[in-house]
Design goal:
Helix 24 links the parallel strand 9 and strand 10. With about 775 residues, the protein is an alpha/beta fold. The protein starts with a strand and ends with a helix. An eleven-stranded mixed sheet has the order 2-6-5-4-7-8-13-12-9-10-11, with helices on both faces. Strands 1-3 form a two-stranded antiparallel sheet. The protein contains 28 helices and 13 strands.
Length: about 775
């Protein structure tokens, strides 16, 4: 879990973020971002400047980026904060260097957006050419092919800007599916290419001779051009606050994503160079001639008829996925800088209804459109690679600086091997490749220098004074010592202000009897397309709710703490709070109905009920909420026993009158009645309910209906879960759920957490 934190808005409340991404999710983020438009768009361009040596260029880029990936793995696992490279550099070098890193990183993603948008325009043009050739012929003759491609490029930039402004971002599970789909498409391409190479190995080998037709300079140029294709694992660091067990999963996900991607890249280059046999010239010259659509032309050479359509679809899928991720990432950086008073404050505004950083997205879209229309794709690829090379060099500098500032920081976390040689070598190689970019096309450097100078000018002219007054929004603090003094801990998730008093009235006597404490939890939920830490902006709304609960608990003489969690899904925040707090019992209110048939208590409550790692009390609250008369149905079992135990505590605290009941089938014999009375007596004896007002034996063939009718005479009905749900639609058992749904009185359902499910719970929570 994230460390507890405080802010101006969350004073006296422990604030942390819910971690919902496991190793697979984190790996898919890196792989999905890396296996994007870069490999589809840049393979032909790389082959054109390096020949078969493009294979060496991709291999060396993999090694170069591995050095920086190690730095990201250490920094992200040691300082798991949202923001990625910008957050690390700003921590190590506050002031103008921190601003410059964020300014460059924002531009990195903007250029990447322009690159992917142009890639989409090219692949979309190819798809139109294959489906409606008469239209492309007319458009090319009227406007020119390049103008037509730019038109589709600007159209897709506008579309994805609007999509992100409206907040309909692709969810994590869909992103995983898209990533797997891209890998499958490339695997099919590699399979047919390898089959062609195996059929004519001599000709394939000849395609690699000479290996460096343009010398090693061509390899260096290709490395600089294609480095953008190895950017993506850094997005794992960007969402590090949302990853479970970051000290373990971030380094693993980073290495997994890099290894998988590099292997796929190398296989694609081998196939592209070795499997095609053009009528004129060499295979690498053929690829270089077609540049961003070279893979499509390669597919025509050795794949069946569906191959071209499949690769075009893969290119469209990859460019759209990469464009969506880059728009989100670039607007996220602008949003974070604006929040730190390093950009216009308006860029940190969140749309009141859609809850998206709409102005940051709009600014990103405008700059992307200008770059896409003004520069050819190879210049954008070179500029994007250049900016990432400079940013990655700064990240390695940040690693060295933070090691020096905090030499003993979290020794158990992942550490870069062969320090300081590894980060120093990474700095030299990144800067070396960046300098060499000037030889390929000076415009990439001109663009970078102009952007950096413009940023530094506005920083010193305006933002420096603003940033100096910024108060950190999150201060990491140690966990209060009071948290460890109580062994029994009751967690109360609260969302509805009307539930504060009744839930505290239930929890206070139990905490007193168990000599425990109460933790009142409020979960701030934010949309999937916002970074998790932006929930800090909304925590002030929860403070009055938590203060009221804490005041009520302390007035009753029970140690009461409050906690805030920020999560994309409320149930993640509740479950992970229960896990990290070591909760013994969750006390949760329920409004008494749901808006959909496929849910029992509602999406949040259903998830908590299924996966709660402790005892659970779910209460349907009906006004007026009181405890004067309590009905306790019982048929034995651990859940019913726990329910009776809680009833005994409530009876002692509120002097309630308690009636125990047992439902018999109609026509029950005297022996059946005797057995039922024995069940009630056992429950009474085990749980100090010796002063039960009455024993009720109810004859009915419809148990739930009879209990609902009987409950109408009481203030509250308390019952244990009847059985573990076998089917996903059953949570507490059919009877308790029907009673809870249809009773006009308050209903409490209790379930005891059984040790045999602990391993399953931990597996679910990662």
């Amino acid at each position: 879990m994230g460390e507890p934190s405080q802010s101006a808005g969350g004073k006296n409340h422990e604030v942390s973020f819910a971690r919902s991404l496991g190793l697979f999710d984190a790996s898919m983020i890196g792989i999905g971002a890396m296996i994007g438009a870069g490999i589809f768009v840049l393979t032909g361009i790389a082959a054109g400047v390096a020949g078969p040596g493009a294979l060496l260029a991709f291999m060396l880029n993999g090694l170069v980026t591995l050095l920086t990936a190690l730095a990201y793995a250490e920094l992200a696992s040691t300082y798991p904060k949202s923001g990625g490279g910008y957050a690390f550099i700003k921590t190590a070098f506050p002031g103008p260097v921190g601003f410059a890193s964020g300014w460059m990183l924002w531009f990195c993603y903007i250029i990447a957006c322009a690159l992917y948008a142009l890639g989409f325009g090219s692949y979309f043009w190819e798809s139109l050419h294959s489906v409606v050739p008469f239209f492309t012929k007319w458009a090319a003759g009227t406007f020119g092919e390049q103008v037509s491609i730019i038109f589709f490029t600007l159209l897709i930039v506008l579309a994805f800007s609007l999509i992100n402004i409206h907040g309909t971002a692709v969810s994590g599970s869909v992103e995983n599916i898209l990533t797997v789909a891209k890998i499958i498409i490339l695997a099919i391409f590699i399979y047919f290419g390898m089959r062609q190479i195996a059929a004519e190995p001599a000709q394939a080998a000849a395609s690699f001779d000479p290996f460096l037709p343009l010398g090693f300079n061509g390899v260096l140029l290709a490395m600089g051009l294609t480095f953008i294709a190895f950017e993506g694992y850094d997005l794992i660091a960007t969402v590090s606050e949302e990853i479970k067990h970051p000290e373990r999963n971030i380094p693993r996900a980073t290495m997994i994503s890099l290894v998988v991607t590099v292997v796929i890249y190398l296989l694609i280059v081998i196939v592209c160079v070795g499997a095609i046999q053009p009528q004129e010239g060499s295979s690498w010259e053929f690829l270089g001639a077609y540049q961003e659509t070279a893979i499509v032309r390669a597919a025509e050479q050795f794949m069946p008829s569906f191959g071209v359509g499949l690769i075009i679809f893969g290119g469209l899928l990859s460019t759209l996925s990469a464009l969506n991720a880059s728009v989100l990432a670039s607007s996220r950086v602008a949003f974070s800088m604006s929040r730190d008073k390093m950009l216009l404050r308006s860029l940190s505004r969140i749309h009141p209804r859609r809850l998206t950083p709409h102005l940051a997205v709009a600014a990103t879209g405008v700059v992307t459109a200008i770059l896409a229309a003004a520069f050819p794709i190879q210049v954008l690829g070179s500029a994007a690679s250049l900016m990432f090379l400079l940013t990655f060099a700064l990240v390695n500098f940040a690693l060295i600086a933070l090691r020096r500032k905090f030499p003993g920081e979290r020794q158990a976390m992942f550490r870069v091997p062969f320090y300081p040689v590894t980060p120093l070598l990474a700095i030299v190689l990144n800067l070396g490749l960046a300098v060499y970019q000037f030889k390929f096309d000076p415009r990439s450097w001109y663009i970078a220098i102009a952007w950096l100078l413009m940023g530094l000018f506005v920083y010193f002219a305006y933002f420096e004074k603003k940033a100096a007054t910024e108060i950190p929004q999150v201060l990491e603090v140690g966990r209060p010592a009071a948290q460890a003094i109580k062994h029994y801990r009751i967690l109360i998730p609260i969302h509805n202000p009307d539930h504060v008093e009744p839930l505290m009235k239930l929890a206070v006597p139990i905490a007193k009897a168990k000599e425990g404490e109460i933790v009142v939890l409020s979960v701030v939920t934010i949309p999937q397309n916002l970074p998790i830490h932006e929930g800090m902006r909304f925590i002030k709304q929860k403070s009055p709710l938590l203060r009221a609960a804490r005041r009520q608990g302390r007035e009753a003489g029970v140690h009461t703490r409050t906690a805030l969690r920020i999560a994309h899904q409320a149930h993640d925040g509740i479950l992970q709070a229960a896990e990290s707090e070591g909760a013994s019992l969750i006390v949760m209110g329920w409004k008494g109905y749901t808006t959909t048939r496929d849910r029992i208590f509602g999406e949040v409550a259903d998830r908590v009920v299924r996966h709660a790692p402790c005892d659970l009390m779910t209460v349907k609250l009906v006004e007026p909420f009181k405890f004067k008369r309590i009905l306790l149905p019982t048929a034995g079992g651990p859940h019913a026993t726990l329910a009776a135990e809680f009833v005994a505590i409530l009876r002692s605290e509120y002097k309630s009158k308690v009636a125990c009941c047992y439902v018999l089938a109609k026509g029950a014999t005297e022996r059946d009645r005797q057995i039922a009375d024995e069940w009630i007596s056992k429950t009474v004896q085990r749980t100090a309910l010796e002063k039960v007002s009455e024993h009720l034996l109810i004859e009915s063939d419809r148990i739930a209906t009879s209990l609902v009718k009987a409950a109408s005479e009481y203030d509250m009905l308390v019952m244990g879960s009847s059985r573990e749900g076998v089917f996903s639609s059953v949570l507490f058992g059919e009877i308790p759920e029907k009673v809870a749904r249809f009773s006009e009185s308050s209903v409490m359902i209790v379930r005891r957490f059984e040790g045999k499910t602990k391993g399953w719970i931990k597996k679910i929570l990662g």
